[in-house]
Amino acid sequence: MKSEAKDQLIQKLLSRKEELIELCSNLLKINSENPEGDSTEITQFIDEYLKEAGLETKIYEAAPKRFNLISEIKGEGNKRMILCGHTDTVPAGDRSKWSFDPFSGEVKDGYLLGRGASDMKGGVAGIVFAMAFLKKEGISLPGNLTLALVPDEECGDIYGVPWLLKNNHLSADGALIAEPASPLNPTIGQKGSCCFKVTVYGKPGHGSLAPFAGRSAIVDCMRAIKEVQTVTDLEIKIPEDVLPLIDLSNEYIRGSGMKGYDKVLKKITCNVGTIKGGTSSNVVADKCEVQFDCRLPFGTTQEEVYDYVKTKLNQLGIDYSIERFGFRSNANYTPAEDPICKSVVDNISYVKNDHGYGVLQWACSDARHFREYNIPVLQYGPAETETIHGFDERVKVQDVVDCALVYVLAALDFLQA
User: Fold this and answer.
1) Which residues form a coiled coil (predicted)?
2) What does the alpha-carbon distance between residue 383 and residue 364 come to, in Å, rounded to a whole number?
């Protein structure tokens, strides 16, 4: 699109930004915590909003109370793009630690407040509004634009994007996920993930005789944890083709003031997430379970990490079992030169009047599923990063508005290219 046409569209959208802010506020008022994973209310609300804008919708219940919503604007050409987001949030947790009601949807001091504001109801509001805006304004699209809202990203990631792709409800030439990102830096790649639970078995005995009686599963588990954590010390040979992207991403990390974090893109990280063991203080523990979350850089795989962990545990001479769970993926990315990346980054630069560029993310996301189906994808959404999954989650109103502008302009540019 030419600059003059973009500027006209921007002014039209800005004239209706209060509608966008109200939409985001209303989404924040709806409790869509996962677990429990009930997306009924939020799906119904968005469904009604889209229908009022003149859009048709399709709703798929992939599991009880887990609803996927799809809406499409058909254009003149055959090129296809997806705008994607998840409607579930992590739980609000201890509400006494919030300085405001996490489901108030309050707008205060330039921020939208509430659970999911940054992850990712600000982004969901932007892509939903973008679809409604294009429909209401009667803007002719040069291709087909699909909105996909999924209920299951925060816990398990089974009944959302992978379910839609597996059941042939989604296909496209490019996709944008409205996940939180830096204002100038969409994430065009993610590390892999390998989550597993180690259960260590001991021999019970009277606590007054430990360590001379029985064998403590907890003590053995402590040894196991120490060995598993050595996975971070492994030297990984990073493929040559991704080194420039990693170097660029590390420049971004250092420039953002995140000291020490520039190591994570070349290392396997290992988080000891939960531990549960024993029955009583006066009983030698016969069982102990610990859950690990490892994130994998380019240059290694889930199987390699899993095999390394088992080798280390076997050397300890302990009685244990190991079981995988949760997110599973190897590191993956979409080249910055891909048309979907260029369309989004170019319009970030245009809207922000500053230089935007894509970076790698040290976590993982729904993006990997699109790439498994050969759909190029990147992530860009409004966020106050330090509040994500924490108390007092919030997002800047201006960032929500700017992202909505990028979604509209990027869709038009990508579909006509």
Assistant:
1) none
2) 17
Q: What is the pLDDT of residues 334-364, one digit of tens each?
A: 999 999 999 999 999 999 999 999 999 998 8
Between the alpha carbon of residue 214 and those of residues 82, 202, 225, 276, 351, the distances in Å are: 58, 7, 21, 19, 67
The architecture CATH gives domain 3-190+331-416: 3-Layer(aba) Sandwich (3.40)
Question: What are 180-233's pLDDT values in tens digits?
Answer: 999 999 999 999 999 999 999 999 999 999 999 999 999 999 999 999 999 999
- Intervals of CATH 3.30.70.360 along the chain: 192-329
DSSP state of 139: P
Give the burial string for 338-360 (b: 16+ CB within 10 Å, else e). Answer: bebbbbbbbbbebbeeeebbbbb
111-113 and 332-333 beta bridge pairing: unpaired
pTM of model > 0.85: yes
Beta strands at 192-201 and 287-296: parallel, antiparallel or unpaired: antiparallel
Domain covering 192-329: architecture: 2-Layer Sandwich (3.30)
Instruction: Give the chain's radius of gyration (CA, Å).
Output: 23
Residue 172: partners with Cβ closer than 8 Å, 6 or more residues away: 80, 81, 82, 146, 375
**Residue 309 burial (CB < 10 Å; 0-12/13-18/19+)?**
buried
Q: Which of 174, 118, 170, 180 is nearest to 149 (CA)?
A: 170
Helix 397-416 vs helix 339-352: crossing angle, to nearest 10: 140
- Establish whether the linkage from the previous residue to 120 is cis, with ω within 30° of 0: yes
Among 409, 350, 397, 378, smallest CA distance to 134 is for 409
Please, are residues 164 and 69 in contact by the beta-carbon 8 Å criterion?
A: no
How many beta carbons lie within 10 A of that of residue 261, not counting itself? Answer: 13
Kindly give, in sequence order, each residue whose CB lies less than 8 Å from that of residue 165, ignoring residues fewer than 6 positions away.
369, 370, 372, 373
